[in-house]
Design a protein that fits this description.
It is a single chain. With 331 residues, this protein is α/β, with parallel strands linked by helices. The chain has two domains: 170 residues, Peroxisomal Thiolase, Chain A, domain 1 (3-Layer(aba) Sandwich), CATH 3.40.47; 147 residues, Thiolase/Chalcone synthase (Peroxisomal Thiolase, Chain A, domain 1, 3-Layer(aba) Sandwich), CATH 3.40.47. Helices cover 31% and strands 24% of the residues. The chain contains ten helices and 13 strands. The strands form four sheets. The chain has a five-stranded mixed beta sheet with strand order 1-7-6-4-5, sandwiched between helices. A four-stranded mixed beta sheet has the order 8-13-12-11, sandwiched between helices. Strands 2-3 form a two-stranded antiparallel sheet. α4 links the parallel β4 and β5. α3 packs across α4 and α7 runs parallel beside α8. The longest helix has 22 residues. The two termini are 30 Å apart.
Amino acid sequence: MSKITASITSVQGYVPEKKLTNADLEKLVDTNDEWIVSRTGIKERRVAAEGEALSDFGVKIVEGICKKRGISPEELDMIIVGTITGDYRFPSTSNVICDKVGAKNAWGYDISAACSGFLYALDSGKQYIENGTCKKIIVIGADHMSSIINYDDRATCIIFGDGGGGVLLEPDTEGYGIQDSILKADGSGRHYLLQAIGGSVEPVTKENACTPGMYVHQEGQTVFKNAVRNMADVSAEIMEKNGLSSEDINWLVPHQANLRIIDATARRMGLEKDKVMINIEKFGNTTAGTIPLCLWEWEDKLKKGDNVVLAAFGGGFTWGAIYLKWAYTAK
């Protein structure tokens, strides 16, 4: 019997319509377009409409995937969501999406790994495909960052945006799909990038509601240094582990945190910029959403058999890389 691998067979992305440009942010905080672009590469980001929840992003993603693949939501076995901004603390946003799209035969869960959430979720989903438990799994990476951003804090409000994407995983016996993954974590970095209030360490009270701890806190320099080192290292590690040279790699799909981090990772892998998917200028950092958004935008450029490396670094700290062989050429 041929080995079963988990292949991506369809991709869909979603971003809200509303744009928040650097010029808009100049009216909110002490910053300017040149400062933001030179340090991050971001020109604009998207912001959800009033009343639009993360599950609404997920509905658009699932419906788009099903339409492209020609399947019904009732055929889905699982929906796994990588996010830190679910609709509720519980139930899971996966649960809500299943209900909203009519995925009556699916189950699933959310994974919290910040910007590495899509990689963690993708690796989780592949297990169910490889062991034969499931045949059709949608893995979503998406975040509604505007719900936890303080737009008076210029250290964070310039970086994050709303949006995400998803992929359909199906069994493959021809050697395509996910080949290998390396996932890592270091909880000692938790204090440098976190939302301090709202968990069991510091529950919401009348006294701390609407204080800075309710929103994302980031110590930029520390996060940047760790991201550059770890994202580049793990990308090089997965290449070495699988005997891949820079010539073998068709695409790097990096987490869109900062253009300088992306460039450092590409250099470490020996890749020219034409092999790197970059859309940070349009969407900013959508946390768990950046990698699937890139796959969605570049879908028509991906060819069957392409060697693709996905790499991310996020709060926690969490980081990792996944190596896959692309399973289809888009029509």
